[in-house]
């Protein structure tokens, strides 16, 4: 899978396209560029292969999620990655990110950029500095700041980041439990956001039925 290719652009669909939209776009383009349909194989074969590659990546939820992450990382990747020189500097990076986020409208924050920024702070180099420091207070502050910054992110992104938080927590039971509790609450909230409308409609229907039979 090559994140450098914009598969959404190849299929001419938005990045939030549904599975049905992906299938429709593929069928539409395949009818035009399939080697059996197009008169010029020099044009049709490479174009059809590109369309097919994009379709296979985006139609599978797991490969699409991985592609999206890599694609956005590439989009936001700076020319030089800023690395901390000591563990305390990692904490300062967390504080700075948290401070900047507090000044922004949470509904207008670029979640992909935020996820990338947090992932940059949690680079393997920076994690080694923190782990080698072996300071439980420092570990807790870093995790607390990053969990707070991650509140607006999707559940999948939180789960990915939590893997690194658990590396920092290591054998600290208190911190490990805090990360696990954070994920449990995030899962509950995500499920509520997903099902709150059907639940509300169901309750409304039950109320209507109740009123009908009691009147």
Characterise the protein shown here:
With 215 residues, the protein is mainly α. It has 2 domains: 7-76, DnaJ domain (Helix Hairpins, Orthogonal Bundle), CATH 1.10.287; 87-194, no CATH class. Helices cover 76% and strands 0% of the residues. It contains 10 helices and no strands. It has helices at residues 7-11, 19-33, 41-59, 61-76, 87-102, 111-121, 124-133, 136-149, 155-169, 173-214. α2 (19-33) packs antiparallel against α3 (41-59) and α8 runs antiparallel to α9 (155-169). It is flat and about 65 Å long.
Based on DSSP secondary structure assignment, what is the total number of beta strands?
A: 0
Mean pLDDT: 85
- Largest sheet composition: none
How much helix, percentage-wise, in residues? over 70%
- Put simply, the count of helices is 10
**Helix and strand run:** HHHHHHHHHH
**Structural class estimated from helices and strands:** mainly alpha
In whole angstroms, the N-to-C terminal distance is 62 Å
State the low-pLDDT regions, or none. Answer: none
Rg, nearest Å: 23 Å
* Count of separate structural domains: 2
Shape descriptor reads flat
| Proportion of strand residues | under 5%
């Amino acid at each position: 899978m090559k994140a450098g290719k914009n598969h959404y652009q190849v299929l001419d669909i938005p990045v939030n396209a549904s599975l049905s939209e992906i299938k429709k776009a593929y069928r539409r383009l395949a009818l035009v560029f399939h080697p059996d349909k197009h008169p010029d194989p020099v044009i049709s074969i490479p174009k059809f292969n590109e369309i097919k590659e994009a379709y296979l990546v985006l139609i599978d939820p797991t490969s699409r999620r991985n592609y999206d992450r890599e694609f956005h990382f590439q989009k936001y990747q700076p020319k030089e990655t800023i690395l901390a020189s000591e563990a305390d500097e990692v904490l300062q990076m967390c504080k700075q990110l948290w401070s900047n986020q507090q000044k922004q409208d949470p509904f207008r924050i670029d979640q992909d950029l935020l996820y990338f920024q947090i992932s940059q702070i949690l680079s393997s180099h920076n994690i080694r500095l923190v782990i080698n420091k072996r300071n439980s207070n420092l570990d807790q502050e870093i995790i607390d700041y990053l969990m707070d910054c991650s509140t607006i992110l999707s559940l999948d992104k939180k789960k990915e980041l939590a893997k690194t938080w658990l590396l920092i927590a290591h054998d600290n039971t208190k911190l490990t439990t805090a990360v696990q509790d954070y994920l449990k609450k995030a899962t509950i909230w995500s499920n509520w956001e997903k099902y709150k409308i059907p639940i509300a409609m169901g309750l409304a229907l039950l109320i209507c039925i109740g009123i009908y039979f009691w009147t």
